[in-house]
Amino acid sequence: MREWGKEKYASIRALVLALMLSISFPVPLLPRSTFSLAPRDVSVVSTATPEGRLAVFDDAWARINERYYDQTFHGLDWKAQRTIFRAQAAKAASAPDLYAVLRRMIASLNDPHTRVFSPEEKFEWWHPRFVTVGFAVAEIAGLPTVIKVDDKAEAERAGVRAGDVIEMVDGEPALALVKSRLTNLPDPASSSARFRVFAKLLDGPANTAVEISWKGKDGKRKSARFQRYWQQRELGVRISRERGDYAVVSLDAFTKTIATDFARTIRGKLNGSKGVIIDLRTNGGGDAEAMSDIASSFLGIGVDLGQFTDRVGTSFTIYTQPRSLLTLFGSEQTKLPLVVLTSERTASAAEIFVEALRVSRRATIVGTQTCGCVLAVRTRHLLPDGGLLDVSELDYETPSGAHLDGHGIQPDETIQLARADLYANRDRALESALAKLR
Question: CA–CA separation, 438 vs 433, rounded Å?
Fold first, then answer.
């Protein structure tokens, strides 16, 4: 191993970044060495009293004030935010109301990575779970549209189909709700903000119901009441063949388990292939070490993947791995032509992966613009009541000095979702990728 490899690899191992995972949204990078939360020495604070609610609020505000990667808070007067929202926290009628106040305050940062979870909502990012009504929503042609319905869900039985348009939510016009929520955001015009607002249109506490009206393919309107419930997401890697000659690698996330499974199976799956399609359209990030391991399968070792910098200017660089998992399983770097599929849900470590392939001219990018969500967290902060707070503590720059956060990556060919394609179960992005490889 070359000298730079020994030194850099040791430093990377000491500061391994793990990117937390979610079903729909970007998630902050987190050092694996500090992933575990140390128990508090004091009793859990109750948010049933004004004093308890203020203790939680003050702790969250102070943590952000001390740790946030941008000491200017993007020009926001963070102390003024404390004055505004502290009074609201004191008057909160319940724990959910308190956390709603905290989220409104954090939303003023316009940073999807910095966020808070109540004791009931917290979970390990390696085993992500989320509240759902059985289907997902995104913006298509300016309208809130169903893009996926879970098999055997109540919504499927009620006749909700991918491509249907959501018109009313609890008696309110869906588009009016979207516009109202966008108005309250610091940057309502950003594609990332719009994506999040549309995706969260039906959000609410678990075990509550929501009344929804929607319009189907035939133009008829239907209504039903759906229960919100917790759902666990299973993360993995799937490698399949399209038309015999092309391998499609779908990566839900970047974790060590997924990287190992990838390395174990990739050699046999690529035998006889003429090209590879890497599908990252639902990849919200993952372990940066696992990401760099998989990247080394296509880029080789020692490739600069960019650097992270904290609020006082301390920085470190990450590289593709000097010793890849491929070596362990007897595989080699592949030279096959590549196409990568992206979407607004492609975030964080997945964006670093895409950018490295794009800059090296190793792959063609097809789909829609990525999230533009690449910030990092050193530790998860335990709040006095047992809730969790994630604070963006590190900024990211590409090797050329560009920032992906707030910008994302534009594909070489943009292919937007269309209602007709959803109804026809047609994947035009995948079709385009196959055409390019042929």
Answer: 9
Domain assignments of the chain as residue spans, ordered by start: 1-117+235-438, 129-232
Overall pTM surpassing 0.85 (yes/no): yes
The strand ranges marked E within 209-303 are: 209-215, 221-227, 229-232, 237-242, 246-251, 275-279
Query: Which DSSP symbol is given to 368?
Result: S
Alpha carbons 336 and 190: distance in angstroms, whole number: 36
Domain boundaries 1-117+235-438, CATH class: alpha beta
Rounded to the nearest 10°, the torsion over CA 324, 353, 434, 425 is 120
- What are the beta bridge partners of residue 349? none
Adjacent-strand bridge partners of 395: 309, 375
**Which CATH number is associated with domain 129-232?**
2.30.42.10
pLDDT tens for 134-187 read 999 999 999 999 999 999 899 999 999 999 999 999 999 999 999 999 887 777
Q: What is the pLDDT of residues 420-437, one digit of tens each?
A: 999 999 999 999 999 999
| Cα distance between residue 212 and residue 209, in whole Å | 10
Per-residue pLDDT of 305-344, as tens digits, reads 999 999 999 998 999 876 655 555 555 567 899 999 999 9
C-alpha 378/C-alpha 17 separation (Å) is 8
In angstroms, the CA 161 to CA 163 distance is: 6
Which residues of the chain are modeled with pLDDT < 50?
Answer: 1-39, 41-42
Q: Which two tokens stand for residue 74?
A: 């993007």
CB atoms within 10 A of CB 326: 23
Burial 219-246 (b: 16+ CB within 10 A, else e): eeeeebebebeebebebebebeebeeeb
